[in-house]
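Hey, can you fold this one?
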Amino acid sequence: MHLTSNGAIPRPTAARLLLVAVVLFFFYQLPHGVGNDNLILMVPLVAWWGSRMLGFHGLRAWYLDARQGWLRLLGLGVVLSCAAKALALVIGSGADVYTVAWTGGPPLAALAGPLALTVFGTFVASISEDILTRGLVLRAFPRLDGRWLFIVVSSALYVLNHIYRLQKGPSEWIMLFCMGLAYAAALYRSGTLWAAVGLHWGWNLANGLADLFGQVDVANATAAPYWTAGAHLVMLAVTLLVMRPNSLPAAAVPSRAPGA
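Sure. Predicted structure:
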Protein backbone atom coordinates (compact mmCIF):
# COMPACT_ATOMS: atom_id res chain seq x y z
CA MET A 1 0.00 0.00 0.00
CA HIS A 2 1.11 3.57 -0.59
CA LEU A 3 1.06 6.07 2.27
CA THR A 4 2.04 9.72 2.20
CA SER A 5 5.22 10.89 3.94
CA ASN A 6 3.28 11.66 7.12
CA GLY A 7 1.60 8.24 7.18
CA ALA A 8 -1.83 9.40 6.00
CA ILE A 9 -3.98 7.35 3.64
CA PRO A 10 -3.83 8.90 0.14
CA ARG A 11 -7.22 10.22 -0.88
CA PRO A 12 -8.57 9.65 -4.41
CA THR A 13 -8.73 12.81 -6.47
CA ALA A 14 -12.07 14.58 -6.87
CA ALA A 15 -11.90 14.04 -10.63
CA ARG A 16 -11.58 10.26 -10.24
CA LEU A 17 -14.33 10.11 -7.66
CA LEU A 18 -16.64 12.09 -9.93
CA LEU A 19 -15.85 9.88 -12.92
CA VAL A 20 -16.47 6.69 -10.95
CA ALA A 21 -19.71 8.10 -9.47
CA VAL A 22 -21.07 9.07 -12.89
CA VAL A 23 -20.21 5.71 -14.46
CA LEU A 24 -21.69 3.76 -11.53
CA PHE A 25 -24.86 5.83 -11.60
CA PHE A 26 -25.22 5.36 -15.38
CA PHE A 27 -24.84 1.60 -15.25
CA TYR A 28 -27.16 1.29 -12.26
CA GLN A 29 -29.93 3.24 -14.00
CA LEU A 30 -29.36 1.55 -17.38
CA PRO A 31 -31.50 -1.56 -16.66
CA HIS A 32 -34.45 0.63 -15.69
CA GLY A 33 -33.94 2.97 -18.64
CA VAL A 34 -33.91 0.26 -21.32
CA GLY A 35 -36.23 -2.18 -19.54
CA ASN A 36 -33.73 -5.03 -19.22
CA ASP A 37 -33.19 -6.11 -15.61
CA ASN A 38 -30.36 -8.47 -16.61
CA LEU A 39 -28.09 -5.48 -17.21
CA ILE A 40 -27.81 -5.04 -13.42
CA LEU A 41 -25.19 -7.80 -13.61
CA MET A 42 -22.81 -5.20 -15.06
CA VAL A 43 -22.85 -3.02 -11.94
CA PRO A 44 -20.58 -5.19 -9.73
CA LEU A 45 -18.07 -5.35 -12.60
CA VAL A 46 -18.17 -1.57 -12.97
CA ALA A 47 -17.83 -1.25 -9.19
CA TRP A 48 -14.71 -3.44 -9.30
CA TRP A 49 -13.27 -1.18 -12.03
CA GLY A 50 -14.17 1.90 -9.97
CA SER A 51 -12.49 0.49 -6.89
CA ARG A 52 -9.30 -0.09 -8.89
CA MET A 53 -9.53 3.43 -10.30
CA LEU A 54 -9.54 4.80 -6.77
CA GLY A 55 -6.50 2.76 -5.76
CA PHE A 56 -8.02 -0.25 -4.00
CA HIS A 57 -7.92 -4.00 -4.53
CA GLY A 58 -11.20 -5.74 -5.37
CA LEU A 59 -14.24 -3.93 -3.96
CA ARG A 60 -12.47 -2.53 -0.89
CA ALA A 61 -13.15 1.06 -1.94
CA TRP A 62 -16.76 0.36 -1.02
CA TYR A 63 -15.93 -1.22 2.39
CA LEU A 64 -16.55 -4.71 1.03
CA ASP A 65 -13.46 -6.51 2.29
CA ALA A 66 -13.31 -9.89 4.00
CA ARG A 67 -12.67 -8.45 7.44
CA GLN A 68 -13.24 -10.55 10.52
CA GLY A 69 -16.93 -11.05 11.20
CA TRP A 70 -18.19 -9.89 7.79
CA LEU A 71 -20.05 -13.13 7.08
CA ARG A 72 -21.75 -13.04 10.47
CA LEU A 73 -22.94 -9.47 9.84
CA LEU A 74 -24.17 -10.41 6.37
CA GLY A 75 -26.13 -13.33 7.76
CA LEU A 76 -27.46 -11.30 10.67
CA GLY A 77 -28.80 -8.69 8.27
CA VAL A 78 -30.50 -11.28 6.08
CA VAL A 79 -32.19 -12.97 9.04
CA LEU A 80 -33.30 -9.65 10.55
CA SER A 81 -34.80 -8.40 7.28
CA CYS A 82 -36.54 -11.66 6.43
CA ALA A 83 -38.06 -11.75 9.91
CA ALA A 84 -39.19 -8.11 9.61
CA LYS A 85 -40.79 -8.79 6.22
CA ALA A 86 -42.57 -11.91 7.47
CA LEU A 87 -43.86 -10.03 10.52
CA ALA A 88 -45.01 -7.11 8.36
CA LEU A 89 -46.96 -9.47 6.09
CA VAL A 90 -48.57 -11.36 8.97
CA ILE A 91 -49.63 -8.22 10.84
CA GLY A 92 -50.39 -6.35 7.61
CA SER A 93 -52.72 -9.06 6.36
CA GLY A 94 -54.61 -8.87 9.65
CA ALA A 95 -54.85 -5.09 9.27
CA ASP A 96 -56.11 -5.43 5.66
CA VAL A 97 -52.99 -3.79 4.24
CA TYR A 98 -52.04 -6.94 2.31
CA THR A 99 -53.78 -10.06 1.10
CA VAL A 100 -51.53 -13.09 1.34
CA ALA A 101 -52.18 -16.49 -0.21
CA TRP A 102 -49.55 -19.22 0.15
CA THR A 103 -49.55 -21.47 -2.93
CA GLY A 104 -46.60 -23.66 -1.99
CA GLY A 105 -44.61 -22.59 -5.03
CA PRO A 106 -43.58 -24.69 -8.02
CA PRO A 107 -43.17 -28.48 -7.83
CA LEU A 108 -40.08 -29.60 -5.93
CA ALA A 109 -38.36 -30.82 -9.10
CA ALA A 110 -38.77 -27.40 -10.70
CA LEU A 111 -37.90 -25.35 -7.61
CA ALA A 112 -34.09 -25.25 -7.84
CA GLY A 113 -33.91 -22.95 -10.86
CA PRO A 114 -36.37 -20.25 -9.73
CA LEU A 115 -34.98 -20.35 -6.19
CA ALA A 116 -31.38 -19.92 -7.37
CA LEU A 117 -32.38 -17.06 -9.67
CA THR A 118 -34.24 -15.35 -6.82
CA VAL A 119 -31.32 -15.65 -4.42
CA PHE A 120 -28.72 -14.54 -6.95
CA GLY A 121 -30.80 -11.80 -8.57
CA THR A 122 -31.79 -10.15 -5.30
CA PHE A 123 -28.19 -10.28 -4.07
CA VAL A 124 -26.78 -8.56 -7.17
CA ALA A 125 -29.48 -5.89 -7.16
CA SER A 126 -28.99 -5.20 -3.45
CA ILE A 127 -25.20 -5.01 -3.41
CA SER A 128 -25.21 -2.83 -6.54
CA GLU A 129 -27.37 -0.18 -4.92
CA ASP A 130 -25.55 -0.43 -1.61
CA ILE A 131 -22.26 0.32 -3.36
CA LEU A 132 -23.74 3.34 -5.14
CA THR A 133 -25.74 4.96 -2.34
CA ARG A 134 -23.71 3.95 0.72
CA GLY A 135 -20.18 2.74 -0.05
CA LEU A 136 -19.56 5.43 -2.65
CA VAL A 137 -21.07 8.15 -0.46
CA LEU A 138 -18.80 7.33 2.47
CA ARG A 139 -15.75 7.07 0.20
CA ALA A 140 -16.54 10.41 -1.46
CA PHE A 141 -17.24 12.19 1.84
CA PRO A 142 -14.80 10.70 4.40
CA ARG A 143 -15.63 13.44 6.91
CA LEU A 144 -18.98 11.72 7.38
CA ASP A 145 -17.24 8.58 8.68
CA GLY A 146 -18.35 7.94 12.24
CA ARG A 147 -20.96 10.72 12.14
CA TRP A 148 -24.71 10.16 12.23
CA LEU A 149 -25.04 12.76 9.45
CA PHE A 150 -23.81 10.05 7.06
CA ILE A 151 -27.04 8.12 7.67
CA VAL A 152 -29.16 11.14 6.73
CA VAL A 153 -27.12 12.08 3.64
CA SER A 154 -26.97 8.51 2.38
CA SER A 155 -30.71 8.03 2.91
CA ALA A 156 -31.55 11.21 1.01
CA LEU A 157 -29.38 10.10 -1.91
CA TYR A 158 -31.01 6.67 -1.74
CA VAL A 159 -34.37 8.36 -2.33
CA LEU A 160 -33.04 10.41 -5.25
CA ASN A 161 -31.44 7.33 -6.79
CA HIS A 162 -34.96 5.94 -7.36
CA ILE A 163 -35.60 8.45 -10.13
CA TYR A 164 -38.09 6.10 -11.79
CA ARG A 165 -40.27 6.03 -8.64
CA LEU A 166 -40.17 9.65 -7.51
CA GLN A 167 -43.39 10.44 -9.37
CA LYS A 168 -45.30 8.25 -6.89
CA GLY A 169 -45.24 11.09 -4.40
CA PRO A 170 -44.36 11.85 -0.76
CA SER A 171 -45.45 8.50 0.69
CA GLU A 172 -42.97 6.75 -1.60
CA TRP A 173 -40.21 9.21 -0.65
CA ILE A 174 -40.85 8.64 3.06
CA MET A 175 -40.78 4.87 2.57
CA LEU A 176 -37.50 4.99 0.64
CA PHE A 177 -35.94 7.36 3.17
CA CYS A 178 -36.79 5.04 6.06
CA MET A 179 -35.38 2.10 4.13
CA GLY A 180 -32.20 4.08 3.57
CA LEU A 181 -31.96 4.91 7.27
CA ALA A 182 -31.86 1.24 8.24
CA TYR A 183 -29.34 0.24 5.58
CA ALA A 184 -27.03 3.22 6.09
CA ALA A 185 -27.11 2.71 9.86
CA ALA A 186 -25.77 -0.81 9.38
CA LEU A 187 -22.66 0.56 7.64
CA TYR A 188 -22.36 3.43 10.12
CA ARG A 189 -22.61 1.09 13.09
CA SER A 190 -20.45 -1.81 11.89
CA GLY A 191 -17.89 -0.13 9.62
CA THR A 192 -18.50 -2.61 6.79
CA LEU A 193 -20.92 -2.47 3.88
CA TRP A 194 -21.59 -6.20 4.28
CA ALA A 195 -23.92 -5.39 7.17
CA ALA A 196 -25.98 -3.08 4.95
CA VAL A 197 -25.96 -5.62 2.13
CA GLY A 198 -27.36 -8.22 4.51
CA LEU A 199 -30.31 -6.03 5.50
CA HIS A 200 -31.03 -4.90 1.95
CA TRP A 201 -30.62 -8.36 0.43
CA GLY A 202 -32.75 -9.93 3.15
CA TRP A 203 -35.66 -7.60 2.43
CA ASN A 204 -35.45 -8.09 -1.35
CA LEU A 205 -34.99 -11.83 -0.91
CA ALA A 206 -38.05 -12.05 1.34
CA ASN A 207 -40.07 -10.22 -1.32
CA GLY A 208 -38.84 -12.64 -3.97
CA LEU A 209 -39.56 -15.71 -1.85
CA ALA A 210 -43.05 -14.41 -1.04
CA ASP A 211 -43.75 -14.13 -4.77
CA LEU A 212 -42.23 -17.57 -5.40
CA PHE A 213 -44.20 -19.45 -2.76
CA GLY A 214 -47.38 -17.41 -2.70
CA GLN A 215 -49.23 -14.36 -3.90
CA VAL A 216 -48.99 -11.09 -2.03
CA ASP A 217 -51.24 -8.23 -3.12
CA VAL A 218 -51.56 -4.73 -1.71
CA ALA A 219 -55.08 -4.26 -0.36
CA ASN A 220 -54.49 -0.71 0.90
CA ALA A 221 -52.21 1.25 -1.44
CA THR A 222 -52.28 4.31 0.83
CA ALA A 223 -51.08 2.45 3.92
CA ALA A 224 -48.61 0.02 2.31
CA PRO A 225 -45.66 2.45 1.91
CA TYR A 226 -45.94 3.50 5.56
CA TRP A 227 -46.10 -0.16 6.57
CA THR A 228 -42.76 -0.76 4.84
CA ALA A 229 -41.38 2.43 6.36
CA GLY A 230 -42.41 1.30 9.83
CA ALA A 231 -40.82 -2.12 9.36
CA HIS A 232 -37.54 -0.45 8.43
CA LEU A 233 -37.65 1.90 11.40
CA VAL A 234 -37.94 -1.18 13.60
CA MET A 235 -34.97 -2.66 11.73
CA LEU A 236 -33.09 0.60 12.29
CA ALA A 237 -33.64 0.39 16.05
CA VAL A 238 -32.57 -3.26 16.17
CA THR A 239 -29.50 -2.52 14.02
CA LEU A 240 -28.35 0.22 16.37
CA LEU A 241 -28.83 -2.15 19.31
CA VAL A 242 -27.21 -5.34 18.04
CA MET A 243 -24.47 -4.14 15.66
CA ARG A 244 -21.42 -3.05 17.61
CA PRO A 245 -19.50 0.12 16.69
CA ASN A 246 -16.38 -0.80 14.78
CA SER A 247 -13.64 1.21 13.13
CA LEU A 248 -12.84 0.54 9.51
CA PRO A 249 -10.35 -2.30 9.01
CA ALA A 250 -6.80 -1.74 7.89
CA ALA A 251 -7.62 -3.80 4.80
CA ALA A 252 -9.69 -0.87 3.53
CA VAL A 253 -6.56 1.21 2.96
CA PRO A 254 -5.81 1.82 -0.74
CA SER A 255 -3.25 -0.55 -2.23
CA ARG A 256 -1.74 2.17 -4.34
CA ALA A 257 -2.09 5.90 -4.70
CA PRO A 258 -4.48 6.79 -7.56
CA GLY A 259 -2.51 7.71 -10.62
CA ALA A 260 0.67 6.01 -9.33
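Residues 101 and 215 are 5 Å apart (CA to CA). Let me know if you want another pass with a different chain boundary.
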